[in-house]
């Protein structure tokens, strides 16, 4: 196979992998953001049960930290792969 054709095939493969990764990252971020509001509901529902309420508060804080870490990973990937335009559209 000529080198040019091989390079084009590899470029398409990398682009496809990047698109799959982008999809996974954004879907996971979306799922985590959806979960955040639920924690407020769980905290409100645990009125009178301080141990349970504290559990939900800690869980929410951990989720917020995980979301921030995922956002940073997405930003790092965007610099490398060039999907920064998508990042600005999804904020």
Concise structural overview:
The protein is mainly α and 91 residues long. It is 90% helix and 0% strand.
Features:
91 residues, mainly alpha, 3 helices, elongated
Task: Catalogue the unreliable spans.
Answer: none
Q: Please tell me how large the radius of gyration is.
A: 20 Å
State the secondary-structure class.
Answer: mainly alpha
Distinct helical segment count: 3
Helicity, as a percent range:
over 70%
The biggest beta sheet reads: none
Estimated share of beta-strand residues: under 5%
Q: How many extended strands? A: 0
Distance from first to last alpha carbon:
44 Å
What count of structural domains? 1
Global morphology: elongated
> Overall mean pLDDT score?
79
Q: Give the ordered list of helices and strands.
A: HHH
Characterize the structure shown.
With 91 residues, the chain is mainly α. It has one domain. It is 90% helix and 0% strand. It is built from three helices and no strands. Helix 1 runs antiparallel to helix 2. The chain is elongated and about 70 Å long. The mean pLDDT is 79.
Topology, pairings included?
Elements: H1 3-45, H2 50-81, H3 84-90
Helix pairs in contact: 1-2
